[in-house]
Amino acid sequence: MNSHYEFETIAVHAGMEPDPTTGAVMVPIYQTSTYAQPDVAQHKGYDYSRTDNPTRTALQTALATLEGGQHALAFASGMAAIDTVMRLLRPGDHVVSGNDVYGGTFRLFDKVLQPYGLAFSFVDTTDITAVTNAIRPETKLIWLETPTNPMLRISDIEAIAAIAHQHGAWLGVDNTFASPALQRPLALGADIVVHSTTKYIGGHSDVVGGAVVVNDTAVYSQLKFLQNAVGAVPAPLDCFLVLRGIKTLSLRMATHCRNANRVAQFLADHPAVAEVIFPGLESHRQHVLAQKQMRGPGGMISFIMRGGEAAARVVARQTKLFTLAESLGGIESLIELPAPMTHASVADSPLAIDPGLVRISVGIENVNDLIADLQQALHEV
Ligand code: P1T
After folding, report:
1. What residues contact 171, with CB distance under 8 A and at least 6 apart?
2. Domain holding 374: CATH number?
3. What range does the domain containing 336 cover?
4. What is the pairing mode between strands 357-361 and 94-98?
5. Is residue 331 located within the same domain as residue 358?
6. Residue nearest atom 16 in ligand 1 by C-alpha distance
7. Are residues 341 and 223 both part of a single domain?
8. Domain for residue 207, yes or no?
């Protein structure tokens, strides 16, 4: 797929070559674990489905093209994608990580990888000086989410990539909250992009998946080796579902952004709400950077209730269209409390979240229905 096409065109066509045997326009679900070999150790590019599968190949081509990258690899989950990236490092290596990341990412770093000899410093990556000061001679990777989960902080990818490269380190960006429709970190200098494709890329809350995208062929070869050697690969049906989601990514993201802008404005004007955190509001601390770095503010909003945790729990229980559930980025609206739910694993750490914080994933329903639902829930407080 020619990458000079506009994003909307890429999203529909990337990875979608008619099937060579039948001409099927949509990539079939190659539900097979193995492939007949015409002679010993000779095959047509596929020998075993942990190593490669044609449905996964199509998805990987699409993911690379979406991010404007050379190479992509698909994984069984976002966590599997992040874990595989971390296996590029060796005991004794140091990582500077953002201090506002998905609870599962913190858990992987702190509880799984740190005991294997990796060292982590958690810093506020919106503060360039803090990032620079955290770098050590053995720093191999700077890792950040932007926007972050759940505080929706925006970090300057271009500036941090420059710092990473000055110190011989890579910059890895978890682009899950923005999606490639709104932000392409590789073009801003990042070396590694990861996604939980469970979220906006899949877009329909019916699949769990992950992805890694890179430009460097040597890094890709190592990751490709790890993908096969470790084996956290997605099933063919899951690859098909993510591919189907991708085709409507730009349409969905446009609606998520439009709806979230209206919902954020409504919440900002509501007396029960103390603070609304949304990159599209002028009151957001990195609003100007968000406008520069992203094509839209995204569909995620976090807000702090004036009545603290008790009020937050009432709102989360009382919404009817917003389903009380973890996850985000699907067509349907979701609501959750990060402190006891998605970020429970940071509870006893310096990364702990305000228990009065509510996080919503604004879906593509009619925005007036969404606002009415929040209004009646807030009325219960
Ligand atoms: O759930 P999984 O596909 O393994 O992806 C993990 C992950 C990675 N990165 C970010 C930024 C994420 O938000 C997530 C998963 N997050 C949720 C399930 C959540 O509700 O925040």
Report:
1. 141, 142, 144, 157, 160, 161, 164, 165, 185, 189, 190, 191, 192
2. 3.90.1150.10
3. 249-379
4. unpaired
5. yes
6. 327
7. no
8. yes
* CA 196 to ligand 1 center in whole angstroms: 6
Regarding the beta carbon of 345 and ligand 1, being less than 6 Å apart is answered no
Can you tell me whether residue 107 is helix, strand or coil?
Answer: helix
260 and 229 together in one domain? no
Instruction: Kindly list the catalytic residues.
Output: 50, 102, 174, 199
pLDDT above 90 covers what percent of the chain? 98
307: tokens are 């009545």
Instruction: Give distance in angstroms: CA of 176 to centre of ligand 1.
Output: 8
Q: Is 68 found in the same domain as 175?
A: yes
166-215 pLDDT, tens digit per residue, is: 999 999 999 999 999 999 999 999 999 999 999 999 999 999 999 999 99
Q: Is 141 in the same domain as 119?
A: yes
Atom 17 in ligand 1: which residue has the minimum CA distance? 327
Strand 323-324 relative to strand 192-196: parallel, antiparallel, unpaired? unpaired
Q: Domain containing 239 — which CATH number?
A: 3.40.640.10
Answer yes or no: is 118 within a domain.
Answer: yes
Ligand 1 center–CA 210 separation, angstroms = 9
Task: Name the closest-CA residue to atom 2, ligand 1.
Answer: 78
Q: Are 326 and 196 in contact (CB under 8 A)?
A: no
Tokens of 34: 């193995």
Q: How far is the CA of 12 from the centre of ligand 1 (A)?
A: 25
Atom of ligand 1 lying closest to residue 343 CA: 21
So what's the pLDDT on residue 87? Answer: 98
Q: 111 and 36, same structural domain?
A: yes
From 221, 246, 271, the end of a domain falls on 246
| CB-based contact 276:303 (threshold 8 Å) | yes
Whether 1 shows a pLDDT value over 80: the answer reads: no
Q: Is 150 in the pocket of ligand 1 (CB under 6 A)?
A: no
* Atom 6 of ligand 1, residue of closest alpha carbon: 78
Whether residues 163 and 301 share a domain: the answer is: no
Query: Ligand 1 within 6 A of 104 CB?
Result: yes
**Rounded distance between C-alpha atoms, residue 28 and residue 245, angstroms:** 15
**221: confidence class by pLDDT, cuts 50, 70, 90:** very high
Which of 304, 314, 325, 321 has the alpha carbon at shortest distance from 363? 321
